[in-house]
Design brief:
With 297 residues, the protein is mainly α. It has a two-stranded antiparallel ribbon with strand order 1-2. It is extended. The chain has helices at residues 7-41, 60-68, 70-101, 108-121, 124-130, 133-160, 165-176, 178-184, 186-197, 201-209, 214-243, 248-258, 263-288; strands at residues 43-48, 51-56.
Length: 297
Amino acid sequence: MKRGISLERRQKRLGYAFIAPFLIGLVVFILWPFIQSVVFSFCNLTITDTGYRLDFIGIENYRQIFMVDPKYRQYLLTSLGKMAIDVPVCVLFAFFVASLLNQKFVGRSAARVILFMPVIVSSGLVTKLIKGYTMETLSNSTETAAGSGLSGAIVNLMDSMNLNPTLVSFISSSVDRIADITTLAAVPIIIFLAGLQSISPSIFEASYIEGATKWEVFWKICLPMVSPLILVTVVYSVIDSFTNVSNAVISDIHSTMFENIKFGIGTAKALSYMIVMGLILAVVYKIISRFVFYQDR
């Protein structure tokens, strides 16, 4: 007597059916184009009447971008330096704002919406609409005037405190870029806010009953319990900094491929940039993961 298909096997087939669109999309739209990009980076691609022709030249494209082209190395170092500044400032600002938004005060919901608005306003069609010459000029002049006044007052205050000039310059430049930092920190703010709200109030109540101060509660409870989210936000901020449309390397890759029609060199730049980004992420993850506290351990 022939036995029917078991329930476990039917469930497996149903699972494969559900993930089939993802697997097909992964192979067709990600894996295959990536393999083509690797091949293009080792070839000289020439556009012909019937399509394109590939001439294998080995590592010549990589030698060209690292040994001959001075702009790519300069753009890469500039991108790394900008990332090294933006990520710590963005994460610290996001955690500070999320801690404020986690408090109870009148207009808290409106404040949360306002701080997330830059993500909505800076996306898609809205960006093109607000980047007209008149609006851009007005916005830049207003931000410059406001930033100069605020940063000037902060510089005078810190000079009177005899702080390190390098630290003063760093804080002043960060204040001048407060609009950009707010835009970059919008998503990390939401991540931190969700993490702070997930901490049980009973933990705070117990700590206060035991005589802990708010400062001790912050360092002993809040910070350790949201430390996994610090890792998440740092990784997110690093990727966002590397892939931002204002990034000089991204602009250079786009102009090389689609304006100068040098697809071989362009793909070599893109792949080498991706490798650098992967190495930075691996180092960042390795360092920060040592200080992450997981409650279930």
